[in-house]
Automatic annotation (TrEMBL):
Stored SUPFAM superfamilies: Composite domain of metallo-dependent hydrolases, Metallo-dependent hydrolases
EC assignment: 3.5.2.7
Protein name stated in the entry: Imidazolonepropionase
Keywords annotated in UniProt: Histidine metabolism, Hydrolase, Iron, Metal-binding, Zinc
Pathway assignment: Amino-acid degradation
GO BP, sorted A to Z: L-histidine catabolic process to glutamate and formamide
Family annotation (Gene3D superfamilies): Metal-dependent hydrolases, Urease, subunit C, domain 1
This protein's encoding gene: hutI
Amidohydrolase-related domain boundaries: 63-402
Native organism: Alicyclobacillus acidoterrestris (strain ATCC 49025 / DSM 3922 / CIP 106132 / NCIMB 13137 / GD3B)
NCBIfam families recorded: hutI (TIGR01224)
């Protein structure tokens, strides 16, 4: 079982790869409000029980914090399985996007879907995520052709949070793809995106994100959009260096972003800049796997740059059509070459930091919400190496079983 009751609490940022505390024969006391009141040796915790206490027996299984997935495109219409054969035949992800497919095809479907249809599709996805132990999840907008579609995605994500009783962190990402035709020109298009931000923030978006990429949004455009978001009081994230290192990581450092995500193609300089600025690196090993690209240089991030690393599923229809966060974690072990301990830190505490939730989620500690996963496996190494299936026996969100 993980417990951090001995340290001062998680630090977010460049020094965030702390070790995980481990306890054997331990128990967790949870109050009626779903808050952890004590963690310790089973005997002393059991003494706290009274006649009304309910017990959950982990049956010798490993118990860890609820998983935090800090980068998803949860709400979207349709699917894109027909792109894979094109990619296998040699087309690149950016070729497909530039031909009007990729994100732009999901934009068309998401715009056409009713709110109910979007809700039904995303509900299935969220239920799958929960089965793998996810108790906090980020959801981006960004498959939109207008403010109305952005707001529709945001409303769906908000309804999902209510339906599932879990926290969803909302990110506005109107700057996700550039339409093929821009009748009023590129500058006017950027102005349109800028004009959406106040409404998205007012509707509940806490973060803003931009796909800063060769042939998508430039560093200057990303800066313009994210500075405007910051002026509104929003926190910022960047899809940085996914394909071409045009300076996305450096921009994230310059803006003091909460996280910089992808980083497949980042330069040493970009990664050092992130560490210096205390930006959390979010690696998306499912995406590099599905795009058949070398994984991000997590060992360099951890060992050379001393950069805090989180992992996320990036669940989306184009580059990672899988809600299996357990698989994400196994791929972190296998392709990012992280240790099991680093993987669990990256999927809990650091993932919470990547959402500005370092003081709420990602750790089992007195005073925190009782978001807890009980595994039908004796140790974390088994969970990660026996890959592709769920080892989750039970999930508690704020002390209540959701599974
Ligand atoms: O994080 N890179 C941009 N956004 C997503 C992909 C979205 C899509 O292809 O639909 C990503 O990989
Ligand atoms: Fe993404």
């Amino acid at each position: 079982m993980d417990d951090e009751s001995h340290s001062d609490g998680p630090r977010c940022g460049a020094d965030a790869m702390q070790t995980v505390g481990e306890m054997r024969d331990a128990a967790i006391a949870i109050d009626d409000a779903g808050v952890i009141v004590d963690v310790g040796p089973e005997k002393s915790i059991v003494d706290l029980a009274d006649a009304n206490t309910q017990f959950i027996d982990a049956e010798g299984g490993f118990v860890g914090p609820g998983l935090v997935d800090p980068h998803t495109h949860l709400v979207h219409g349709g699917s894109r399985e027909k792109e894979l054969p094109l990619r296998l035949a040699g087309a690149s992800y950016l070729d497909i996007l530039q031909a009007g497919g990729g994100i732009l095809s999901t934009v068309r479907e998401t715009s056409a879907y009713s709110e109910e249809a979007l809700f039904a599709q995303a509900k299935t996805s969220l239920a799958r995520m929960q089965r793998f132990g996810v108790t906090t999840v980020e959801a981006k907008t960004g498959y939109s052709s207008s403010l109305a579609v952005e707001l529709k995605q945001l409303r769906v994500a908000q309804r999902l949070a209510e339906w599932a009783g879990i926290e969803i962190v909302h990110t506005a990402m109107p700057a996700h793809a550039v339409p093929k035709a821009l009748p009023r020109g590129r500058d006017a298009y950027i102005e349109e995106l800028l004009a959406m931000l106040p409404d998205l923030q007012a509707a509940g978006a806490e973060f803003a994100d931009v796909f800063v990429e060769d042939g998508v949004f430039s560093v200057d455009e990303g800066r313009q959009i994210l500075q405007a978001a910051k002026r509104l009081g929003m926190k910022v994230k960047i899809h940085a260096d996914e394909m071409v290192p045009i300076g996305g990581a450096q921009l994230a450092a310059e803006l003091g972003a909460t996280s910089a995500d992808h980083l497949l193609a980042s330069t040493d300089e970009g990664l050092f800049a992130l560490a210096e600025a205390g930006v959390m690196a979010v690696c998306l090993p499912g995406t590099s796997f599905y795009l058949q690209k070398p994984a991000a240089r997590a060992r360099f991030m951890l060992d050379e740059a001393q950069l805090g690393v989180a992992i996320a599923s990036d669940y989306n229809p184009g580059t990672c059509p899988s809600e299996n966060f357990g698989l994400t974690m196994s791929l972190a072990l296998l392709t990012l070459k992280m240790t099991p301990e680093e993987v669990f830190v990256a999927a809990t505490r650091n993932a919470a930091c990547a959402l500005g939730r370092g003081d709420v989620a990602g750790i089992i500690r007195s005073g925190r919400p009782a978001d807890i996963v009980i595994y039908a496996a004796a140790n974390p190494e088994y969970v990660l190496t026996h890959f592709g299936v769920s080892h989750v026996r039970q999930v508690l969100v704020k002390g209540r079983p959701v599974l």
